[in-house]
Amino acid sequence: xxxxxxxxxxxxxxxxxxxxxxxxxxxxxxxxxxxxxxxxxxxxxxxxxxxxxxxxxxxxxxxxxxxxxxxxxxxxxxxxxxxxxxxxxxxxxxxxxxxxxxxxxxxxxxxxxxxxxxxxxxxxxxxxxxxxxxxxxxxxxxxxxxxxxxxxxxxxxxxxxxxxxxxxxxxxxxxxxxxxxxxxxxxxxxxxxxxxxxxxxxxxxxxxxxxxxxxxxxxxxxxxxxxxxxxxxxxxxxxxxxxxxxxxxxxxxxxxxxxxxxxxxxxxxxxxxxx
Length: 275
Prior knowledge:
Elements: H1 2-5, H2 13-25, H3 36-41, H4 48-54, H5 65-92, E1 105-109, E2 126-136, E3 140-143, E4 154-156, E5 160-162, H6 174-177, E6 193-202, E7 209-214, E8 223-226, H7 227-232, E9 234-236, H8 242-256, H9 260-274
Parallel strand pairs: 6-9
Antiparallel strand pairs: 1-2, 1-5, 2-3, 3-4, 6-7, 7-8
Helix pairs in contact: 8-9
Organism: Eimeria necatrix
InterPro entries: Chromo-like_dom_sf, Chromo/chromo_shadow_dom, Chromo_domain, RNaseH_sf, SH3_Tf2-1
Protein name: Chromo domain-containing protein
């Protein structure tokens, strides 16, 4: 607004600012249909142009100022409510009235989740399906996320999409559909998972991640895991040991220095040792 007002003389904006402020405060707004002056003091002040036209002002009868002020405030409130209802109407056209029950499976939008790879544009738009664990209020749900998801497990209903079961011919086998149950030496369930082998590696140092093939799952379900997950949240099989991670880390540093062939040969030796 100020830019269009001072376009003819940009160096005089400070002198023109009071006149612009008066014009703004005496102009009716679309939501209240009243000017800021009418809302605050009950009327617009007289300007110099109006005084020249009126000339000698004669006293006129006006209603009490308190009554006029109350009428203007009520009028402004009614128009504000009308504007809010219009905004709600247009906002509701993009909303879905969806309710879920505890135990239902849903897909979670990956828009606000940490990416799995270095190219977020190639990420799937939804992840899952996950089971609804609890309903929070009227528009939020708690999901049963796997332990690798280090994020808050309560999401708004707008971030969820209902899961539709596949035809029986397209349903994968039980070994491919879920993570294999793990138990400790005492037979109690644990959140650790067994690793078959490490398929790839990216990053270096504290940011190093490993593409892990989990035991009992296909390679399509391999996930990128940081090094601390491989030492605290998983259990290595006899074909892979934690020293493999340390060795791969050192070879990755060599690759970063330009010795790419050495890194490829090292990964080949690791894969052959794991098979």
